[in-house]
Amino acid sequence: xxxxxxxxxPVSVVVLAFLxxxxxxxxxxxxxxxxxxxxxxxEQMQVPGGTQYVRVGxxxxxxxxxxxxxxxxxxxxxxxxxxxKDHQVIVPDLRGMxxxxxxxxxxxxxxxxxxxxxxxDTLEVQRFQxxxxxxxxxxxxxxxxxxxxxxxxxVVMDAPLPGLGTWxxxxxxxxxxxFNFRGPDVERLVAxxxxxxxxxxxxxxxANPSGIDEQTRVHYAALYAKPGxxxxxxxxxFAAFARDAEDNKALFAKxxxxxxxxxxxxxxxxxxxxxxxxxxxVATDVEGAVIANSGHWIMEExxxxxxxxxxxxxxxxxxx
Length: 320
Fold this sequence. Notes:
Layout: H1 10-25, E1 40-47, E2 50-57, E3 62-66, H2 77-83, E4 88-92, H3 109-122, E5 128-133, H4 135-146, E6 151-157, H5 167-170, H6 184-190, H7 194-204, H8 214-224, H9 229-238, H10 241-255, E7 258-267, H11 274-280, E8 283-291, H12 298-301, H13 303-317
Parallel strand pairs: 3-4, 3-5, 5-6, 6-7, 7-8
Antiparallel strand pairs: 1-2, 2-4
Helix pairs in contact: 2-13, 3-4, 4-10, 7-8
């Protein structure tokens, strides 16, 4: 049946248009890379074969934030800015990434976890909450599995774990062809084209490519264009996955499921609720959360949702 048209209140139309525009351009809805607050300091800390760049700020219960490929520790600035008010926040660049040095070896995630444990010893941090994304998840699992008494809770975001859960099935996904994209000729192909390579990840693995803005893309392209950066990412971090899978199977066989509370977070256009099932295979106490209108790049695409979700969980699990 034909419905009669209804007259529209011009004020309502204006308000609706304003709110729609605000949702599109609001800095809370889209992320850009910003400097860490002045309360943070950064230093190069010694690890076997080189150094890791580590940002530290604030006082209180410790929280460690681990990034993945396509990012550096800079991705965590929106979360760190909130947490630093009442936490000690520790944000390293992973081995061979960002402003860390570029050693040739040591990219097995179990080894990187031991490096981080030593860094935390130097900082006199014994117990901490852990937040990770992408390859950071893999280092995070190795850290939690080797030092379960030190990790009080873990927020794990949008990537599987080598050798565990549905890892073998994940390897057949055409979107992960980059797991074996490495070698001298590959590095020659990428040299000077790092922005193009990163754009592929940002565009294909996001809910909306415009969620990763131009400033963010330029920032990370410059870091991944540094000498050794692509070599260490592809030939170091990714190349170690097969060994990581074997190490993880051994860690799981020895220690069983992780005892600490875990929040498994997925973007609704990426792993979504499947992250909870993924982590239930390796941990006993798992909650799930799904970030709306987000692909893999949760902190860039939906920073406010991500920060609100993570902070609420950390507060709920604090003191454990």
